[in-house]
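PROTEIN DATA CARD
Card holder: Membrane protein
Chain length: 338
Origin: Echinicola pacifica
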Amino acid sequence: MIALTCSTTRSFGQDPQFSQYYAAPLYLNPAFAGSELQTRIGANYRSQWPGLDAQYNTFSAYADTYLEKYNSGLGLMILNDVQGAADLHSITISGIYSYELRVSEGLYFRPGFQASYIRRDVGYYDNLIFANQIDPSNPFGPLFPGNTDLTGLGEPINMLSLSVGGLIFTDKLWIGGSVHHINQPNQSFLDGLSPLPRKYSFHAGYRIGLGHGAMKRDFTHRYKQRYFVPTVNYKKQGVFEQLDLGAYLYAEPLVLGLWYRGLPYKPLNSETNRDAIVMLIGLSLPSGMDVGYSFDYTMSQLGIQSGGAHEVSISFTLPNRNPGAPRLRDTLLPCPKF
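Structure generated from the sequence above:
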């Protein structure tokens, strides 16, 4: 309790993160809403440090669609996160809107806006017993009703968070950025002010064609795609910074990925800022379904005994309801789906 009380004077926190950040597109950047030009649904699950008592479990589900008549994308996202031994539980419900603007031939810009309702509570308090609950004459008998001296301790908090993002792309290149929690809502469980720090993200990549593979055995008579995609994803929230640097190899329908997460040249609190090596395997099927699994090999002082992190993603892009109708955009967003 002393440690808990002292930590309320100044504490830092981070939003959950996904290693397969492009498999959680609406969480990465609201500008991705409707970017597939079709209806899309998906889910992500991440289990971090399962070898420790203080593990993190995060689940998200999302759906988005594109309104071609209005050049607009709409999205809905739900995120459920349970953090550490204190059982800090957060649920986020987000509504997202994006607009697509054609800058020039083959060049497009998408701004996005997001409003989120966040509810947090700490389940740890449910297991605590305070002195005023104990009967001195019968210390092992029934407990008195709980009544802590800290007003509001353990009561859930509700927040409204506003976020924006932007994405510019061609058929080979994309560059995007987002700022979450612009209004910095108060996340304190006690009387006082503890603003939720803004989260900044910058992401980019380039698709390099590797020729075509064998001809598909279906009615399309098209060749299987092959390409190599180097990517970068930089994140900053409060005093924390991370960089994801790596690449994807796509040989239809198989996807392989390998990247490094950390900033070793910029220590944090005198500790080397390195996190993990991430390895991915996925399938991108002609039916519109994408399934991926990734493992984070922990490189920090926690070591591999922490259990690393396991992550699973699945998404499904619904077929075009009017496949013969002309589209206002023939440039596909080139970023990977994992």
